[in-house]
TrEMBL record:
Residues 139-225 form the Translation elongation factor EF1B beta/delta subunit guanine nucleotide exchange domain. InterPro entries: eEF-1beta-like_sf (IPR036219), EF-1_beta_acid_region_euk (IPR018940), EF1B_bsu/dsu (IPR049720), EF1B_bsu/dsu_GNE (IPR014038), Glutathione-S-Trfase_C_sf (IPR036282), Transl_elong_EF1B/ribsomal_bS6 (IPR014717), Transl_elong_EF1B_B/D_CS (IPR001326). The keyword S-adenosyl-L-methionine does not apply. Residues 80-99 are annotated as: Disordered. PROSITE patterns: EF1BD_1, EF1BD_2. This is Elongation factor 1-beta. PANTHER family: EF-HAND AND COILED-COIL DOMAIN-CONTAINING FAMILY MEMBER (PTHR11595), ELONGATION FACTOR 1-BETA (PTHR11595:SF21). One of its GO terms (cellular component) is eukaryotic translation elongation factor 1 complex. Belongs to the EF-1-beta/EF-1-delta family. Coiled coil: none annotated. The lineage of its organism: Eukaryota, Metazoa, Ecdysozoa, Arthropoda, Hexapoda. Keywords: Elongation factor, Protein biosynthesis. CDD domains: EF1B, GST_C_eEF1b_like.
Length: 225
């Protein structure tokens, strides 16, 4: 599926349909295709585009350095499925010596001790450089249903109290009120967590501590990033 200009309402609508059954633009892990579309979208969309909003908040939760380390992917914004990887004909920068260094030497003459030493130094430098690339951090995107006691509960104050919860690895996202009947609305709020830092059980317990406002908390959606 090829998507039009995502800066237009039609293009964003097509992207929302495209992401309805996908976590990422290309494949099962984030890639440069996500970065390309993320940059094109430019800002968080409205809650009327829930799939784009979920995806946008997920990508925004990563740092620029983490996004830069992602592999290439196939972008739906490009006709014919052209990948987002750099063109092969583009000359490499002088300081990017991954492909320029002859790690194993050249020539037909017998390798002497000096050549062997230089090769080992280059191999070590290459390995050190590769080891410094940032590793992907396991994250999850969660949508929580926070239910009030009755129709007299101040929902704005409830949301304000929920957002006061701060934890290392927790990022609050968009929210909306969803009718549940008899004039009662529930607060549906999105967040992104780092799995190693934030416990979902602890987060829901903290929300339920606002007992003047909150009757219960349920997980409406849970997606690994």
């Amino acid at each position: 599926m090829t998507i039009g200009d995502v800066k237009s309402a039609q293009g964003l609508g097509e992207l929302n349909k495209y992401l309805a059954e996908r976590s990422y633009v290309s494949g099962y892990t984030p890639s440069q295709a996500d970065v390309q579309v993320f940059d094109e979208v430019g800002k968080a969309p409205s809650t009327s585009l829930p799939h784009v909003l979920r995806w946008y908040n997920q990508i925004a939760s990563y740092t620029p350095a983490e996004r830069k380390a992602w592999a290439a992917g196939v972008s739906p914004l490009t006709a014919g499925g052209k990948t987002t990887a750099p063109a092969a004909a583009k000359p490499a920068a002088k300081d990017d010596d991954d492909d320029d260094v002859d790690l194993f030497g050249s020539g037909d003459e017998e390798e002497d001790a000096e050549a062997a030493r230089i090769r080992e130094e280059r191999l070590k430098a290459y390995a050190d450089k590769k080891s410094k690339k940032p590793a992907l951090i396991a994250k999850s995107s969660i949508i929580l249903d926070v239910k009030p006691w009755d129709d007299e509960t101040d929902m704005k104050e409830m949301e304000k109290q929920v957002r006061t919860i701060e934890m290392d690895g927790l990022l609050w996202g968009a929210s909306k009120l969803v009718p549940v009947g008899y004039g009662i609305n529930k607060l549906q709020i999105m967040c992104v967590i780092e799995d190693d830092k934030v416990s979902v059980d602890l987060l829901t317990e903290k929300i339920q501590e606002f007992e003047d406002f909150v009757q219960s908390v349920d997980i409406a959606a849970f997606n690994k990033i």
